[in-house]
Structure formats: C-alpha cells, structure tokens
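Note to self: the last two entries modelled the partners one at a time, which told us nothing about the interface. This time every component goes in together.
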Amino acid sequence: MITLPAVLVVDDDPNFREMMVLAGQLWGITVLEAGNCGQALHVLDCEKNRIRLIILDYYMPGMEPRQCAAALIAKAGPSIPIILATAAVEPAVRAAELKLSQWLSKPFDITALEVLFRKVVLENDPYYCLNIRNP
Amino acid sequence: MLLKVSVGHRLFLLVALQTAIATILVVTAMKYVYEIAADTQYMYRFQLLSLADLGKAQENAATLQMLTRPDAADLGFRAPHAMIAGLIGELEEFDSRYRTKWEVAEGTSHDAENFRRELVHAGESSLIEKEKRILKYFEDAISSLREEEQSHQSHIVSTDEVRVQVPKITNAVAELLDVNIKYAEVANDQVLRRARSSRWWLLTIGSIGTILTLTLGVLVRQAIAPRIRRLVGKVHLFREYGVNEKILDTGEDEIAVLGNALDTGFSAIAARDRERDQFLAVAAHELKTPITSIHGFASILAAHLDDRTVADRAIENISRQSWRLSRLVEHLFLAMRMKTGEIRFEPTPFDLSDLVKRSVSEIQSFFAGQNFICELQNPIRVLGDEPLLEHGIWTLLICASAISPGEKPLKVSLVSTAAWARLLVEVTDANLSFHDIELLFIPFGLVQYENSSGIRAAIGLYLCKQIVKLHNGRLDVSDRGKAGVQFCMELPE
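The predicted structure of the combined assembly is written out below.
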C-alpha cells in the first residue's frame, strides 16, 4: 500500500480545518486534521511515518497549550517540524511559550502556504520551515 | 509616632510653638522695658533730685559762710538776723528732707532699702558709713548753730561758735554731695548692668525660639516633603510610563489617606487598562479567526473560479463566516455597551416561545454536528426588549454548544411557572468546575474553545446575564454531575 506524505492540521476551528483540507486537495497534498490535542496525538500515533509537517493552533479544548505542544514535540520528534498558526495578538510570544521557533499569524497568505506545503511535504525539505515567520 | 500625627496637627503645633515663643518674647521685652522705665524714674527721683537738693544746700551753706566771715563787714556784706535765721532754717529743712527722702544709711523707703542692698552687692558699703557720719556731723553742726542763733539773736554773726560751725556745715554738704555723686555712679552701673542683662535675655530667648521654630519646621518638612515628593514621583511614573507601583504609605495622616486614594485610583485605572488590553486581545483573536477562513476560501475561490464545486463550497463558507463575524462584532459591541451602562432598553410585549424557536432554528443551521431537542410551551408572553433578548438567547445557546461534547443533543425547554417564563438548556455529559462556571460570567475573561460546529463563545455568559438582569430576570448555571450542566434563564411574565 502506498502512503502519501501529509500535513497534520491541529485546530479547533472546523472552518479553518475545512479550508486547509480543501486547499490541500487542490494542491495534491494530503491534509490530516485534528480538532484537539488528544486527537492530534492519536493521529500521530497512527500516521507518524507519513506526516511531514504539523500546523498547530494555540487555543484548543482539552490540554493546556504548553502541555499540548510539549506532547506533540515529544511524539513527533525532531524530524517533523511544527509551525504555530494563531490569531493571538503576539504570535512570537506564544510560539516562544510553546518552545516553537516558527509561527504563522492568522490570517495568512494562502499562496505562501502552498509553497511551504510543496517544499516540506512534496520535496521533503523540512529546513524550508526555517524561512517561515509570517508568510 | 510622628507619622500618626496628622499634617494639620503638625502645622498647628508649629504655629502654636511660634505663637508661644512670640508671646514669651513680648512678655520678656515688656518686663524689661518696665524695669528700664522704673530704673529711669528711680534715677531721677532718688539720685538726681538728691543731687539737685544738695546743690541748693551747698549754695545756702556757702552764703551763710560768706555772711558770717570775720571780715564780712569790711567786704560790705551786711546780713540781717532774719536772713541768717532763714538760711539756718533752710539747712535744717534740707537735713530733714534728705533724711526722709534720700538717706541711704538709715532710710526706710523702698528705694533706700534696695539701693543699700545694691551698694553692699557692689562692695561700696563704706559709702553708707561715710554718709551716716557726715549726716551726724551735719546735724550736730546745724544744731549748735541753731542754739547759737537763738541765744545771740542779732549778734550771731560775730560769735566764734558760728565761725567754727558754718565751715563744718559747708564741708559736710560738700562731702555729702561727693557721696551722692558716687551713689549715682553706682546706681548708674547697676541700671546699665540690668539693661545689658535684659538685652542678653531677649537675645537668648529670641535665639532659642528661632532655633526651636526652625527645628520643628525642618522636622515637619522632613515628615511631609519626602512623602509628597514620593507621591508626585509615583504619579509621574504612572502618567509617563503607565507603571503602577504601590505607594505604600504606612502613616495614618492626610498624606497617607491621599496616598491610599491614589493607589486605589491607579489600581482601578490599571485594571481598566488591563481589561481594555484583554478585550482588544480577545476581540482581535475572535475577529481574526473567521477572517482567516474568509481570506483562505476567498483565495481558493479566486484561484478556482471555473471549478463549480470548489466555488460553491468556498462561497458557502465565506457566507457563514461573514455572518459569524457580524454576530461576533454585534456581541462584542453590546457587551462593551453593557459594561459602560450605555445600552438602550425598549421593552414591548412579545411571545418568548416564538423567539426561542426562531433562535434555535437559526443557530441549528450553523451547528452542523449539534442536535437540538426543543420542548417549548406556546405562547408565553413577556414584556421585554426582543432584539436584546435575542442576543441573550444566542449567547446562551452558543455557550451551551461550546461546552457540549456534541455527541448528545442539547435539550431546550421553555415553560411558564406562576410568575416566570423559564428557559432551560441542558447539556448532557458536560462537566464544569466551579471555577469554569465563574469564568463563564467574566466578560472577555477567557477565550472559549470552539466546539465541533465552530462557534466560539468569547464573551461567555456575561452578555446574556446582563441582558437578563436588565429584564429583572435570573440566569443560573448548575453542574448536575453525570446529568451534565443546566443553564436556567428566568424572565418575569
């Protein structure tokens, strides 16, 4: 069975997840979704080998943001980059709280997101994430 | 201790001390002015008048001596007996007057007794003895002369006894004058000493008073000025940089009261600032969330206009998110108006069951994964502001939906009791701690997490509670354990 590389979107806003899934379909990239941290950890358990990138929201039900990020970082390991996508006022501060060095401030430019997805997922270039601050 | 004394009392103490010092100075000055005046009077009465009378007596004695000289007739001095007797009489009167008014040695007047003490004090007591001796000498001479005058009548001028006694009288008066001049010198020294003493005391009291006043003034200043400077510094710090440092004045006086009032005021302003910042942060977050979806779907739509399925899906999402955005803005606006008490309330009678039915129906279309079970008694008429209550019911349903796991339906029931219309919303399988319930009622206190239908409840139940309160109603949330959470809104019918 062929497993396609994928992006995991962890966000409690179903509209956002729907938009990311639709965008992924149009770009030919599989987008897995999780509505909270528990679901994300479960998806990671099952699909870790094909997940190339995690897009993580800050405020979500269930775990505290720091606990959630720490659990995801621990489970994903260093090979899967995690990018914080938040509508919070100070995304850099939020990212630092979660010990994440890349973030996206909502709303963001979807074409830049397409480039990010293609580079990291299709071209398997996780270091491209280092260019991400607020595309 | 000093901090407990009020500023007013401190200033009163300062003024009281200054007044006391001024009073002491005035009283002391008056005392010494009185003494100087008394000394001046004494010098005139006891010293100068005696000298003047002695001068007159010396003149009489000299005239008598001249008229009784052996060669008086040769020189052309012819004195009638009456004139000689008159001169002797005047000298007798002087003796008597002197002894009564100015004698120091055995005088009994107040001035004589005081001056005697002063002479002893000044080491001039020999003058007293001298005066005593001269007066005795003078008295004896004048007595002999009087006896001679009475026995010889008109021949008195030529007697030997007269020629012996008259020079004695002249000498006695001259010596008495010398003694009195020395008396005057001693008295003058005493008066000058008293004047110097007065000056010294006035200067000393004035200096001590000035030093005391300055010291107390400095103490009052030290107790007040640094604290006022500190207050001004804190005000400046707060005004310029928004830093709210506690003033912490431990005193109990007016400055401490002012400091505490400033602390309270600044804390209130800082709390409002924090609340405003929190509101802006929450508002920005809440507004940016639907905008992200709208922006994303709009970009997809622009890139795939020819794909009907994608376009329809994007448009439908944009439409839903726009509506969500509009509702959110309204709720944020209303919540802010509620907080500042600027809300308009226009009650009219209407059917509450219709409003609940309509609200559930509208919300349901946006809650794809959430089922609602409605049991509404119909009709239930209430007097209220329908548009406001619509917002209230919306926020209540949104909040209930936000804490619902989404697997079981939300039960919405409306019943009429004796005087109340009661709306119950039951959320099965939801758990809320007391702290969570408290948070629900804090405006902008937290960002509620989205439920499965994507509806946020950022303003919690604050808006709902305020609207119900405006209608004289009640809003309660209770955690019923395994039965879940129940929201109960009661409005007067």
